[in-house]
Fold this protein.
Amino acid sequence: MNVTTTANAPQERRATTLVMACLGVFVAYLPVTAVAVSLPAIQRALETTTSQLSWVQDAFVLPMAALILTAGVFGDVHGRRRVYLAGLALSAVGALTALCAQSIQVVWVGQAFAGLGAAALLPTTLAMISHAVPDHRERGKFIGIWATFLMASLATGSLLAGTVLEHFAWRWIYLGPGVVAVVGMAVSVKLLTDSRAPGSRRLDWGGQFTAALAITALVYGIIEGGAGSFTDAKVMLALFVAAVSAVAFVLVERRSDSPMLDLTLFRSQAFTATTLIAMITFLGLIGFFFALSLYFGLVQNLSTLQGAFRLAAISGVPLVLGAPVGQLMHRVSPRLLIPGGLLVTTGALLSLTGIDADTSYLSLTWRLALLGFGLAFVITPMTATAVSSVPFHQAGMAAAANNAFRQVGGALGPAVLGAILSTKAVHALPGHLTDAGLTRAAADGIASAADTNGLGAVAGMNLGAEQGPALAALSESFLDGLRLCLVIAAVLTLLAAAVGAVLLRAPKHAASPKAGQGPVAHGPQAAGDFDPTAPEGAQRGSGTVGRTPTGR
């Protein structure tokens, strides 16, 4: 099969591939907001601490970040259809496990299975699109549709969970993701065709082990350090293991004949920029979503469905703008789109520092919608640029790497901002309790309970006549922590915008191949130069002349 044959494949087969890819990313991200808006309900039902609650999200994100590169390689070597089906199966198992959970530890296990499923689905779905649509200009449109379904899953997840929790226990939020995964498997078995990457890639076990160990140790150290102290021996050991493993990963990958992550990809400034932007942005945003879900429950005392409607404003705007932004990428440079979107996101985060316990629905929603508007101009161009800035045969690896670093940031977000939120709120609580008129002894007792069992423990205490003033003080303390988290998230997105402005150079347009010819060979471009409209073989002097998408 050559480039022309692939490009002229029957439209129905390409359409089927797109539908399956969109279904896969929908299943992968459906639990993210469904669980996020349900965290207060889970905390009340299972009586968890804030640290244990942060592990609910991290148990999902951690295996996804640690194994997403391996899943990408496995699909390239053994076939993407097999990995795609495995991802759906793992997602279904995770949903069933959490559905039957009677303790927070079993919820972690279910989330971990779902995270493994997402690790298999995310790089595979993007690689399926790259294989089915080799023309870069057309591929940008398909990636825009893919990103639209990603945002649709985030919007659907929160609304689905909110509706379920109005009538049933928290565990039933997992029924929907499980059903969608099973239906997806039944459809995919019959309709999805297989594809592999060109060349002779092999599984890189040394790289996989060191990467997984580095990511796991880092996230564990951050979470436990925030919950306790960063001077604890186990925390210091975890961070030391993370640093050593990261260095070992680089050494292993540099010497490997078939690396899981080809480090030469970072010679492209465009790829480096999108990778850093993905990690930095998601560190701030996922951490903010974690804090926002607690704000809905602890401060505004909203039902899960009410919180879901507010959270849907963030994902709803990118859902509407996903496809148009995909088209806009052909007219506007990513150097303008991505940093511009991040600046809007920064402004939205800073505007949210003005919210309090009495903020109205409209006052909050316009701020969240503005946040979603900024993200709409980041997510699709960031993904498309990462895939476009490398040779065609490395598109799957680039997609997996971009997703992996995005999930590393997503895993660190709840850990870092959750720890900052708890520390700031607990530190501010005694002062707010005293200002509310409580005695010093009562204030110290409540603060001690919050420090030991988390902020949610205060809401469950029976304080008699002091209940109202204590809850008001708790809200003010939480808002102190939330505002600090918002400022930190805004600084991170501003940093990501600066990275994009510096590293995303203006594209240099390459010559189009003549009719009847394959991709034209070009001399190596300067690092960081990329052309969203050029043929894949023309990207970065990739040396893919005569190479076909299937390597045959």
Q: What stands out?
A: The chain is about 75% helix and 0% strand.
